[in-house]
């Protein structure tokens, strides 16, 4: 179901180092009407961004997540596609100010459908790659990350649920791990990356 803009605008901003200033991004988010803004000072390459996790948990159906630009939200094109489709499945809108993306408008809703189709493709890549990734990890003497956090059985269960079209949020909850943990372990298996001309490059 496509979200309707009935809730709050929730902003998220990020800079890569503590020396950089968030004011330009937060000013833009305030001007866009955000009632609450979460901020991180962390590299886009890091899986752990605590304030982004808080922002995603804070969102409710009808809310809209607003970011200054796409590279503030995601580490890679694959990560971006899964994040935006996760919002769609939660009936949360998405706006990126720099790229003028707004999924809460009638014309902008087409963007969500494009992301949904891409997300299905990404999930298929994950399903195809999980067994190969686990086998390669075993050959290197590890089982896909930190066994005390997520086991091989949980990864396989996550694979099955993803193949059924479940969102990353729903899958993480079902296997009993956090969403960032699931992302991190799936990416640690060296699964195929979605690539395309002009693909998102993580900003530092």
The largest sheet has its strands arranged as 2-1-3-4-5
Taken from the alpha-carbon principal axes, the silhouette is globular
The name of the CATH topology of the largest domain is Rossmann fold
Share in β-strands: 5-15%
Low-confidence stretches: 143-148, 190-204
Family: Belongs to the site-specific recombinase resolvase family.
Active site: 16 (o-(5'-phospho-dna)-serine intermediate)
Domain Resolvase/invertase-type recombinase catalytic: 8-141
Keywords: DNA integration, DNA recombination, DNA-binding
Tell me about this structure.
The model is unreliable at 143-148 and 190-204 (pLDDT under 50). The chain starts with 8 loop residues before the first strand and ends in a 16-residue tail after the last helix. Helices cover 47% and strands 11% of the residues. It has helices at residues 23-31, 50-58, 70-73, 77-89, 109-139, 152-163, 168-175, 179-188; strands at 9-15, 36-41, 64-67, 93-96, 101-102. By secondary structure, it is α/β, with parallel strands linked by helices. The chain folds into 2 domains: 9-105, Rossmann fold; 113-188. The protein has a 5-stranded mixed β-sheet, with helices on both faces. It contains 8 helices and 5 strands, in the order βαβαβααββαααα. Helix 4 (77-89) crosses helix 5 and helix 7 packs across helix 8.
Summarize the structure.
This protein has 204 residues and is of the alpha/beta class. 47% of the residues lie in helices and 11% in strands. The protein has 2 domains: 9-105, Rossmann fold, CATH 3.40.50; 113-188.
């Amino acid at each position: 179901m496509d979200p309707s803009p009935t809730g709050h605008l929730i902003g998220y901003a990020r800079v890569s180092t503590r020396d950089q200033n968030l004011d330009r991004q937060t000013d833009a988010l305030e001007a866009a009407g955000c009632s609450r803004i979460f901020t991180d000072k962390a590299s886009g390459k890091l899986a752990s961004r605590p304030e982004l996790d808080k922002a995603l948990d804070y969102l409710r159906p009808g809310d809209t997540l607003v970011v200054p630009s796409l590279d503030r939200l995601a580490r890679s094109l694959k990560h971006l596609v899964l994040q935006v489709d996760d919002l769609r499945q939660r009936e949360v809108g998405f706006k990126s100010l720099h790229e003028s993306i707004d999924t809460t408008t009638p014309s902008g809703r087409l963007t969500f459908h494009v992301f949904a189709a891409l997300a299905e493709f990404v999930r298929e890549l994950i399903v195809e790659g999980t067994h190969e990734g686990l086998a390669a990890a075993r050959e290197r003497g590890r089982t896909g990350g930190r066994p005390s956090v997520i086991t091989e059985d949980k990864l396989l269960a996550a694979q099955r649920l993803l193949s059924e079209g479940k969102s990353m949020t729903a899958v993480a909850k079902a296997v009993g791990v956090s969403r960032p943990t699931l992302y991190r372990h799936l990416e640690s298996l060296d699964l195929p990356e979605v690539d395309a001309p002009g693909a998102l490059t993580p900003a530092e």
